[in-house]
User: Fold this.
Amino acid sequence: MLAIRGVTLAYDDTVVVHDLDLDAADGEVLCLLGPSGCGKSTLLRAIAGLEPLQAGTIHLDDRDLAGLRPDQREVGLMFQEHALFPHRSVAENVGFGPRVHGLAPDAVGERVREALELVGLAGTEHRGVDQLSGGERQRVALARAIAPRPRLLMLDEPLGSLDRALQTRLLAELPEVLAELGTTVVYVTHDQDEALALADRVAVMRAGRIEQQATPDRLWRTPRTSFVAGFLGLDQQLPVRVDTAAVHTPLGSLARRAVSAAEGTVREGATRAVLLPEAIRLLDDDEALPADHLAVTGTVLRRRFRGDHLQVTVRVTGSTDHDTPLDLRALSLRDAAPPDAVVRLAIDPAGVHLLAPDPRP
Ligand code: ADP
Assistant:
């Protein structure tokens, strides 16, 4: 439905988006995830018709957007600093788009009602936006982006300016609102939790390029590069050496066939592997090591409360060249050994994942 091909974008002579291809299917929620400054907003602005293309094409429903003004593109864009008209009512703000499109007052009123209903603000038409809380203003901004019924809705860090509690609440509500809307959505964020929770598909951006696209589940289990893994918070990574039979890690060797691997990783030689937190488990005193697992001994350095789990940090004994402690998750205090305890760990090869070499070291 949205097809971006070979798009290059620049400010003066500085290229910030390089020859980029990206698609979104009808009704899909696509998250663009990447660090600040990687070009996410610039790309959205180009789709909206607010930045010129240096090269490439953007099609929406087989319509080439080149030459169409922003208001002719059927694209809605909501920014982080939601830029509502102050001193105006909710209805005036939400009805702005439909009015500009020339709808009759009755029809505008209907669109406003419908959009407010969708964001859970039914009946607030006559309130001034200055009298609303931050979270309510954010919803009005969302309603305003929805009201013209765009073919493509683009949300640029829509939760970015809210406090944590409000973010969590809106994040819980958003999937339902977006699903009910049924519109194709491009959602920009630098927050991996937000992207993983909302997206049908995530495209991870780095310095103006897309480094990997996948469903949230696949992205988490099979990140392709060290950058993608690190950006998702998977920062337990090990230098490894691979041969046909085994993966040699500083903690010991694992059977090659039992280890998962990213597309494009080395068949033989040096690369990096990510250790998913759920792959490391404390063994009970007399518990046998499960097949194919790697046994590691260590000393507990500390344990930290992390809300839904305890993070146990273990210094490994006898590792060849790895002195970074390992973090593992325990679900209860009973499962988490105290500091200074000597423990045995089992590393599940299914949670060890070989990465492809960094495309841009
Ligand atoms: P993101 O949305 O991922 O944070 P942006 O698209 O805002 O990234 O920015 C990409 C790059 O372009 C950054 O290096 C930023 O400094 C630069 N940039 C953004 N807007 C402008 C502008 N109006 N003029 C010049 N450079 C800009």
Summary: Residues 98 and 300 are 61 Å apart (CA to CA). The mean pLDDT is 90.
